[in-house]
Automatic annotation (TrEMBL):
Keywords: Lyase. It holds the Pfam family ECH_1. GO terms for molecular function: lyase activity. Coiled coil: none annotated. It comes from the Bacteria. GO terms for biological process: fatty acid beta-oxidation. InterPro entries: ClpP/crotonase-like_dom_sf, Enoyl-CoA_hyd/isom_CS, Enoyl-CoA_hydra/iso, Enoyl-CoA_hydra_C. Belongs to the enoyl-CoA hydratase/isomerase family. This is Enoyl-CoA hydratase/carnithine racemase. It comes from Variovorax boronicumulans. The keyword Lyase applies.
């Protein structure tokens, strides 16, 4: 069941990670959070891949958490903490730590947990009818602190406050205007556009992608991480990809970035 609910399929150098919870708009179960972590832990060392597309099955991205499970664990502090820190955040951290570029293919509902998962992605494309929000205040509880900080950083202060304080639900155009989305597309065009964008990334230097992601993470963290970045920022000087990219440009030919 877990493997079916979070599946991984490879198409050349692109991985397709699909959330699937039929009948519940791909709402995340506890098993799905654990499976999502396992999938991304496995991607960290996969040198054959160059990009990942994260998507939902059946025309929805993810409608949040699967609330049918909540009475079994949310009313005890220890089990609630275990869920958020060792299941939800562990999965989100595995996504954030992934050295590969992540593209979110957002269709339909992107609520709560869906917004959190999308916030871990580097590039987000959505259909015009997609809806975004985190109306959990209606259910009597807040978004966990690290999850809220993640969403706040990705979508900005104004929309984060409205989603969490007023249970605001917003359309794709509003999220595009806030800088959360790269493109808003006709719904039918989203899958092809996401995969085309991933293919475009996969044709570029994987070394450059990996180092750019490390730069974004270090600069956001600041302090010692930023200093370490400055100390190692030019280690790529004598690498095959560096030489190949420049040689290809000077030779007026497409580069061939082979797996390392």
């Amino acid at each position: 069941m877990t493997e079916r609910q979070v599946s991984l399929r490879r198409e050349g150098a692109v991985a397709l990670v699909t959330l699937s919870n039929p009948g519940r708009l791909n709402a995340m179960t506890r098993a799905m959070w654990r499976a999502l972590r396992a999938v991304f832990d496995g991607l960290h060392s996969d040198t054959a891949l160059r990009c990942v597309v994260v998507r939902g099955e059946g025309g929805a991205f993810c409608a949040g958490g699967d609330i049918s499970e909540y009475p079994s664990f949310r009313f005890e502090e220890a089990s609630l903490r275990e869920f958020h820190e060792n299941e939800v955040w562990a999965a989100l951290q595995a996504m954030l730590d992934c050295p590969l570029p992540l593209v979110a293919q957002i269709e339909g509902a992107c609520m709560g947990a869906g917004v959190e998962i999308a916030s871990c992605c580097d590039i987000r494309l959505a259909g015009a009818s997609a809806k975004f929000g985190a109306p959990i205040a209606k259910l009597g509880f807040p978004m966990a602190p690290r999850e809220a900080a993640l969403v706040h950083g990705a979508i900005g202060d104004v929309l984060a406050r409205d989603m969490l304080l007023a249970a605001g639900v917003h359309g794709a155009q509003r999220l595009y205007d806030a800088g959360f989305l790269l493109h808003v597309l006709p719904d039918a065009e989203v899958p092809a556009a996401a995969q085309a964008h991933a293919a475009r990334i996969a044709a570029l230097s994987p070394q450059a992608a990996r180092l750019h992601k490390a730069t974004f993470t270090a600069l956001k963290s600041g302090g010692a991480a930023a200093q370490q970045l400055l100390a190692t920022a030019y280690d790529y000087a004598d690498t095959a990809e560096h030489r190949e990219g420049i040689d290809a440009f000077l030779g007026k030919r497409p580069p061939n970035f082979r797996p390392s």
